[in-house]
Design goal:
157 residues; alpha+beta; 4 helices; 5 strands
Length: 157
């Protein structure tokens, strides 16, 4: 026997649940969203395969924290996607990173800090999210190798 059932009555706002009940707490929470992008690059002052032009399918995980609003949302996942697409991905996806990023060696370690800075800047520009801040960025260059930037490292050092 299955426990599957169809609900008898769909909950209605202002009838079954009041607006002041939508936000369950006043605590900081972390949300994350993951993206991929394809890009080419090469490394300078490096002896190894990566000195040659080559490409990766990068995977990036964005971790943001903040306080929920009256609806119980910290930031809409669609808003994170919009920031990623409009402010960050345009410089990365199907690009030659040595050309589209600021002058730097295009290591995962440098790129992850650049992504962190761009996302932090975008959140400051928006100023619509309650205490929103970047907690971490994790950038996978391969499925088993990643670089990470964390807020406590970016703000202190």
């Amino acid at each position: 026997m299955s426990d599957f059932r169809i609900v008898d009555k769909l909950q209605k706002l202002d009838v079954d649940i009041q607006r002041n009940q939508l936000n369950y707490h006043a605590k900081r929470v972390l949300v994350s969203k993951e993206f991929t992008f394809d890009a080419a690059h090469h490394l300078h002052d490096y002896e190894g395969k990566c000195k040659n032009l080559h490409g990766h399918t990068y995977r990036v995980i964005l971790g943001l924290s903040g306080y929920t609003d009256e609806r119980g949302l910290m930031i809409d996942f669609g808003d994170i996607k919009g920031i990623w697409k409009e402010k960050i991905e345009i410089h990365l996806d199907h690009r030659y990173l040595n050309e589209t990023l600021p002058p730097m060696n295009t290591t995962a370690e440098n790129i992850v800090v650049w992504i962190y800075e761009k996302l932090a800047e975008a959140l400051l520009d928006e100023q619509t999210y309650n205490g929103a801040r970047v907690e971490f960025i994790r950038l996978y260059e391969t499925p088993t190798s990643y670089a990470e930037a964390r807020r406590e490292w970016m703000e202190v050092e």
